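User: Hey, quick favor. My workstation is busy. Could you predict this chain's structure for me?
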Amino acid sequence: AAGKAVKFACAQIGKPYVWGADGPSSYDCSGLTMAAWRAAGISLPHNAYQQYKNIRAVSRSQLQPGDLVFYYSDIHHVGIYVGGNWVVHAPRSGDKVRMRSLSVGPIHSYGRPG
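Assistant: No problem, here it is.
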């Protein structure tokens, strides 16, 4: 399932960020992670904080492709870990879904859907 979620997320790279969107032509951060895991048969809420509350926490040392990475103390951003210290995420208005280094931005926690 994690492989399907990662493959889906990577296929969305280049699509525009639109607040509240969950595909197929645009995404916000939690809409992207929700749609990626939906493609793998796992249901997640469309909100970064609610995703954090509804999945199992893992440590950085346990991080595997498909895990979610939550950012900022109020958990207002989420990306999907794709391996090699990279995440795919939908950053903000005016930007596009893209890959970035895992450690760009203050990491709050990690979680594993499914």
